[in-house]
């Protein structure tokens, strides 16, 4: 189990000089609204691609270029945040893990920029980091699972396939036997961060997701499952599959889909 996967603002503030902080919001938000002091801006659109290495990953060369320009080294501790409960920041962290960044050095700011802004200083001054030579590597244990793995899991009573989209999307069409867990059910609208651990355990248990189950995650394009994946990792789940292709690939390949009407 990795420690400090999801970290409070105080944790980040105390380590502002020793961690690399990444803001994945659009540039106009970073520059115009302000950002966490010392943060570099790597907008979500810059590391999101439909023609990368695996599904929606941007490609190794693109990733190396982005992190090198931001002055990030392969062994840096990274804290990522957005202003949308962490879902876009989580996608950044999962991408980093899939490209070989040590998982124990990847952290999600609990809450988001709005949560930080309530009690901590912000700035509009952009840093000018010295360029690094970031190189991707192979993860020690990749959470990626492919179409065939998910197809086989449809008949596996030991696995639970989790659809992290909204209820109306699930009702319109989902993988046979999947359970619906809207990623937003794991966050608190008031604090903007994760719900308390005991509440999270209850929400997850209600859909059959417990630490001893094999969990396979999907959504439409792997953004929303990134948040759920990070949350499960923070709770000590060690058998979580990340279906990068998600429903986009599934339907393109003719995978079976069922709806609530059926």
From TrEMBL:
GO molecular function, one term: thiosulfate-cyanide sulfurtransferase activity
Keyword match Hydrolase: no
Domain Rhodanese residue range list: 15-125, 155-259
SMART domains given in the database record: RHOD
Stretches the record annotates as Disordered: 119-141
UniProt KW keywords: Repeat, Transferase
Name of the molecule in the record: Sulfurtransferase
Organism of provenance: Halobellus ruber
């Amino acid at each position: 189990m990795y420690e400090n996967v999801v970290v409070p603002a105080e944790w980040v503030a105390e380590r502002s000089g020793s961690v690399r902080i990444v803001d994945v919001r659009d540039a106009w938000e970073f520059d115009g609204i302000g950002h966490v002091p010392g943060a570099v801006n790597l907008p979500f659109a810059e590391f999101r691609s439909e023609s990368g290495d695996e599904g929606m990953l941007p490609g190794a060369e693109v990733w190396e270029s982005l992190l090198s320009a931001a002055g990030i080294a392969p062994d840096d501790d990274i804290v990522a945040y957005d202003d949308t409960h962490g879902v876009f920041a989580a996608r950044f962290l999962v991408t980093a893990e899939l490209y070989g960044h040590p998982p124990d050095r990847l952290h999600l700011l609990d809450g988001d920029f709005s949560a930080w802004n309530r009690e901590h200083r912000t700035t509009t001054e952009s840093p000018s980091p010295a360029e690094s030579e970031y190189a991707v590597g192979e993860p020690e244990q990749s959470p990626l699972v492919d179409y065939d793995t998910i197809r086989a899991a449809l008949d596996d009573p030991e696995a639970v396939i989790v659809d992290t989209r909204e209820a109306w999307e699930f009702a319109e069409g989902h993988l046979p036997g999947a359970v619906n867990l809207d990623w937003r059910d794991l966050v608190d609208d008031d604090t903007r961060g994760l719900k308390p651990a005991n509440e999270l355990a209850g929400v997850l248990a209600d859909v059959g997701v417990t630490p001893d189950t094999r969990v396979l995650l999907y959504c439409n394009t792997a953004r929303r499952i990134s948040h759920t994946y990070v949350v499960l990792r923070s709770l000590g789940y060690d058998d979580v599959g990340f279906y990068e292709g998600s429903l986009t690939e599934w339907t393109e390949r003719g995978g079976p889909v069922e709806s609530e009407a059926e």
